[in-house]
Hints:
By secondary structure, the protein is α+β, with helices and mostly antiparallel strands. It has two domains: 110 residues, no CATH class; 133 residues, no CATH class.
Amino acid sequence: MQYEGNILKMKTELFQPVNYILPIGDEKVEMNALIGKKIRMRFDGRINCISCGKQTKTSFGQGFCYSCLQTAPEASESVMRPELSKAHLGIARDMEWAEKHDLIGHIVYLAVSSEVKVGVTRNHQVPTRWIDQGASFAIKLAKTPNRHIAGIIEVFLKDHFTDKTNWRAMLKNEILSDFNLLQEKEKVLELLPGELRKYTETDDSITEIVYPVEKYPAAINSIGFDKMPDIEGILNGIKGQYLILDDDKVLNIRKHNGYYIQLSF
């Protein structure tokens, strides 16, 4: 079987385990069905910007051409740093886009992989964001009316928690143990000043996420299409946005948004 086209980050569905679907061209490939099988992915050198669609020699910011990196609203600095959002002040690269993405409910959360991290996501991106990061457990901390306030809460909590995922430990399935996520939430909320504590999320449910992995890598050999345009191997599993292949190879699909790939199996 063979598919070809520009790829985008994998779509996910929260089942036990997570179900992964790879958009490639006009097709959607059920990736869970390929676990345990040999796959081959060949990059022919074409990259198309995921914003404007134009061909680009180099991909910036996980899928943009340089021009769109500088101008596209979905590539603005507030995407990575929510506290920099100024949409609530009427300032944005594109206010129509900001009204749909920044001026909506946001969730501040704690997620667990190799350690506890704090993060921010749009309310409709739960649990997608947690899955993309490879979290094993997650709980909502606060719900805010816009991205800026959620970012302010996250910045306040960075003194106590990391906001980065240790992706190597995550891929080796080194999961933090001996913790109580609900107790962590209660401690965190006590750290917040009153004007931020009022955004506390009352939903205390803990989401557990299981990934479709037959074998985790003992070490990490990160590979990519720029240096290795022809990649093949046994698909041992999927976690976050990574394909885990034999010989400890891991491939970050999201990093290659817009790459034109031939997938065969």
